[in-house]
């Protein structure tokens, strides 16, 4: 799902460990049950599979593997998309607590 993908990308930029990202992604599955049937109908109307509205097992690992294999990691991918390294650092400064 698009929102899940954006969250995964941000968490990777922040340097969050894979296991924590996967746990967070799986935990969001419970939040999706409210209104699920409506979203399934919307997805089907767009020609998408029912799995599009859930938190598919292996999604995070698949994304991370693809990013690493194709782009050398999240920074390579985001750089290709036009996100400057300084912008990624800015995200880190804003979202990470200083110690």
UniProtKB/TrEMBL annotation:
UniProt KW keywords: Signal
Matches recorded under Gene3D superfamilies: Protein tyrosine phosphatase superfamily
Signal peptide range: 1-23
GO molecular function: phosphoprotein phosphatase activity
SUPFAM superfamilies: (Phosphotyrosine protein) phosphatases II
Protein name: Protein-tyrosine phosphatase-like protein
Tagged with keyword Transport: no
């Amino acid at each position: 799902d698009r929102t899940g993908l954006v969250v995964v990308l941000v968490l990777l930029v922040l340097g969050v460990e894979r296991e924590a990202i996967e746990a967070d992604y799986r935990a969001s599955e419970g939040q999706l049950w409210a209104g699920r049937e409506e979203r399934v109908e919307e997805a089907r109307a767009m020609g998408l599979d029912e799995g599009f509205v859930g938190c598919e097992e292996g999604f995070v690992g698949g994304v991370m593997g693809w990013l690493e294999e194709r782009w050398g990691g999240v920074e390579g991918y985001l750089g290709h998309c036009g996100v400057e390294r300084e912008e990624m650092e800015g995200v880190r400064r804003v979202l990470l607590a200083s110690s």
